[in-house]
Specification:
heterodimer; A: mainly beta; 4-stranded antiparallel β-sheet; about 0% helix; globular; B: mainly beta; 7-stranded mixed β-sheet; 11 strands
Amino acid sequence: DAKTTQPNSMESNEEEPVHLPCNHSTISGTDYIHWYRQLPSQGPEYVIHGLTSNVNNRMASLAIAEDRKSSTLILHRATLRDAAVYYCILRGGGDAGNMLTFGGGTRLMVKP
Amino acid sequence: NAGVTQTPKFRVLKTGQSMTLLCAQDMNHEYMYWYRQDPGMGLRLIHYSVGEGTTAKGEVPDGYNVSRLKKQNFLLGLESAAPSQTSVYFCASSLSPPGPLNEQFFGPGTRLTVL
């Protein structure tokens, strides 16, 4: 399975943008890039996903490198509520595509 | 619309005791999953189900059994609990057909301690 690499932790100031990187150099052509986050003492929640093009939704933006070997989750204005562990996950097709393989993720700390 | 709910929220067991964790979803999802999360780590898949009456093994199935008698419920059983099963257990569900676009919805978790 293609693996992802993320920094263990990052720190941000409230109301500033945050760029969370993810490396996935062995990504296959059919793998989608998903991001989930886990707030303290809660289950993970879906944030965003993409294949090749950059994506925006109400929670965040996803910037995907042209060679697809890396991606960046962008929180445009971090709030205290965004403090969480962010997971970058690759998902393929078929039954395997419904499985989520979590790595260690990036713990985002937001300072007031 | 409650989403995914889990019962109980907390439980303490002694080694060798048995228990069942209940997961329920009201979104009419075909797929359901059980994960465990150990301190400081990501989630690992224990078992999953692709529909009523079906179950399959995930990454770490040993010591656990599951049943999916009703579409909305997915039960995780520990027949003889061990301290190594101390963890937080999360249930999730998603739509079918399977594929990389289907978002998984997670429950709030069950914190289990085995003494």
